[in-house]
Design brief:
single chain; about 100 residues; alpha/beta; Glutaredoxin; five-stranded mixed beta sheet; 4 helices; globular
């Protein structure tokens, strides 16, 4: 899973058909807790671009999914937001991923 280093998520979404995003923050314990599980999912789904976005540092990227709570997971297909979920339930995370991956 790649970590966003610039506020350019919109550009990345335009350049990749399938994008899965975990929005988090350095102070968010729940974000840190679920991140290793998301990294594992990334390793199992090579057709999907996985990104971690620090929602505190990248407001433009945060706005693409209208993030209000952390962690939030968002799936983009062909540039469009198709599904999102909040919280740490891995079933919800997988639901977003399945929508993106087409499983």
């Amino acid at each position: 899973m790649e970590e966003l280093t610039n506020d350019n998520l919109e550009e990345i979404i335009k350049n990749h058909d399938k994008v899965f995003v975990q929005y988090g923050a350095s102070w968010c314990g729940a974000c840190r807790m679920i991140k290793p599980q998301v990294v594992n999912l990334a390793g199992e789904n090579e057709s999907v671009k996985f990104l971690y976005v620090d929602a505190e540092n990248f407001p433009n990227s945060r706005q693409l999914a209208r993030v209000e709570n952390l962690p939030t997971f968002a799936g983009f297909v062909n540039g469009e937001l198709v599904k999102q979920a909040m919280g740490t339930k891995i079933e919800s995370v997988k639901g977003v991923l399945n929508e993106v991956a087409g499983d």
